[in-house]
Amino acid sequence: MENNPHVRVRDSKMVAEPEPKLSVSITSGFWKRYQTLLYEKILPYQWSALNDEIEGAPKSHSIENFRIAAGTSNGEFHGMVFQDSDLAKWLEAAGYVLEIAARDDTIPDEVRRKLGQRVTEAVAVVAAAQQPDGYLNTYFTAKEPNRRWSNLREAHELYCAGHMIEAGVAVYRGTGDRTLLDVVIRFADHIATVFGRDGGKRRGYPGHQEIELALVKLYKATGERRFLGLAEYFIDERGAEPSYFDLESQSGNFKPIWGPNTRDHAYNQAHAPVREQRTAVGHSVRAMYQYIAMADLAIEARDASLAEACRALWDSTVKRRMYVTGGIGSSRHGEAFTIDFDLPNDTAYAETCAAIGLFIFAHRMAELDDHARYCDTAERVLYNAIISGLSLDGTRYFYVNPLEVEPSRCDESGTYEHVKYRRQSWYGCACCPPNVARILGSLGDYVYRTKGNTVFVDHFLNGTASLSLDSGTMELEQSGKYPWDGRIGFTVTRAVDGPAGIAVRIPDWCDDASLTLNGEPVDVTEGNRDGYVVLHRTWQTGDTLELDLPMPVRMLSADPRIAADYGKVAIQRGPLVYCLEQCDNGPGLHTVTLPESPEFSVTFHDAELGGVTVITARGFISTDEFVGETPYAADRRTETRKPVELKFVPYYAWANRAPGEMTVWVRRFES
Ligand SMILES: [Zn+2]
């Protein structure tokens, strides 16, 4: 217990209370709109979806499955084997909102009351489904009671357990009610009786990682080291020979769920012990959740070999296997990574959940190394690959996030079956929608980090923050119009005694950042350490910092090894990647060409797409019509182009108007 700085002992029964090192309230601007959307639209809509009340949407059955497992409803389990996790993620998101609502009086009481009721109702249903020995999983309880833990590779029991553990911690944080926390503690203790190295236990580990990072959270919330130990066991055992997945598939009680068993353990990142893994492979969400836990343990246990593996896996992911949007996992086949620089735009998978995983992994790496490059990537992922998965009204979703779409191909060709150009009301496999909800609810946790007596400003977001430093609590206020404008103001609203550091991230996209302290210029190159300008001084209440991040429109080229992007550019302004849509620019977007040095105009449109900065430029579109026997002609140098005014909108906002083509990468005119 004394080793855990996150925990304060509340009473003699060793009941711990999570004591966040920081609390952030979002007060206005871009992210306030999302936060309001979260409690006004997203969570109520998803609650209806989980209760099968959305007409025309695939049935979730998630809550009904818990009632069936509890014996309070008749009927059969329905849905994916991991259907429990949808409710768990919703509960986690709701827990965050209730935590925010407790300190934010702009959130209406009615929201708090109604959401609180739903959480209480859902927690009661979950608790009722828990078995006398602590086990909790509706698929196995309702459908396969004799096959518990018999198919770890496919059956997602430990994955669902992990999400419910995260929910238990979040609901406790948000409400102070221990009911769900106690349920998941009993469940985790039950799991510890089943898995481990001690005699008679199974030496298994999850097919879909998630419980590892959740157990670290449970340890931080309770101070109980046994949960950290179980997380370490799962991470350390992964990839050991002989393969547990091979052994279980030979057991008499094994029953395949998705067809024939495969020995491709790279899909589950179980092809080698985690400390030997250097390349991001396999199912991209599983990979990220594993890397998050590895980084967690590298930090908690000061484990250098885990940290080394994390850095290599980071480089593999971000330097060679990530889209310009921050999307990862380029192949539908296995929802997986493929090979370096294989990043097709039109068949991209880039699952929303994988982006969420990368965002969290980035923050663990920032915690580990204090380098801003991780938060640069986190920002790219958040503004482009995560919120692209959510419609502007909060009720339509993308699971797959392509960078190029041609609707007739999606409608007619099996190659593009996974690529949607209309956002969906729900999914049979609905992992992404509630995952977006929980990341929006917890966004405040990622804005700042504290270490010793230094505050790291990792993201720009309007709000107030209370930050625990070694020498006391510092309070900071941040304001501006980010991501549309790069001028950001900070005010120290409560200083600590003696010197303290404020380290401000200078984003990698910004070449000419400037900073003033109480109106006096600060040399941002001199104090720049690993991407942060570090100001170490004795702060006074009322001190101000003005950061200016100029946001010219940038044209990005890709590494020439990315075949799909060769000879093309992507448009970025500030942290936002832009795209062309058919509803603004007409069809045939793949023939659009930008001149060598386009003149970009930048205008903020208040009434469009929820308020966005639109970029326009003169370009060309092909007017060639081929009329031969075949679609080929001898000399393409005769191509005729017509000048057009091109309109670029932020990628995250695409597919919120008329359906049609979309592209991120645009050809550049060769002079
Ligand atoms: Zn997903």
Textual characterization of the structure:
Among the domains are: 181 residues, no CATH class; 101 residues, Sandwich (Maltose phosphorylase, domain 3); 103 residues, no CATH class. It is an alpha+beta fold and 671 residues long. Strands 4, 16, 17, 18, 19, 20, 21, 22, 23 and 24 form a ten-stranded mixed β-sheet that branches. It has a seven-stranded antiparallel β-sheet with strand order 3-7-8-9-15-11-12. A five-stranded mixed β-sheet has the order 5-6-10-14-13. 50% of the residues are buried. It is globular, with a radius of gyration of 25 Å. The site of zinc ion has 7 residues, from helix 14 and helix 17.
In short:
By secondary structure, the protein is α+β, with helices and mostly antiparallel strands. It is built from 18 helices and 24 strands.
Which features would summarize this protein structure in a list?
single chain; 671 residues; alpha+beta; Maltose phosphorylase, domain 3; 10-stranded mixed sheet; 7-stranded antiparallel sheet; 35% helix; disordered N terminus; binds zinc ion
Portion in helices: 25-40%
Q: What is the alpha-carbon Rg in Å?
A: 25 Å
* Beta-strand fraction estimate: 15-25%
Beginning-to-end CA distance, first to last residue: 67 Å
Residue ranges: pLDDT <50 for 5 or more in a row? 1-15
How many E-type strands? 24
Global shape: globular
Calculate the mean pLDDT score and round it.
Answer: 94
Question: Which ligands accompany this protein?
Answer: zinc ion
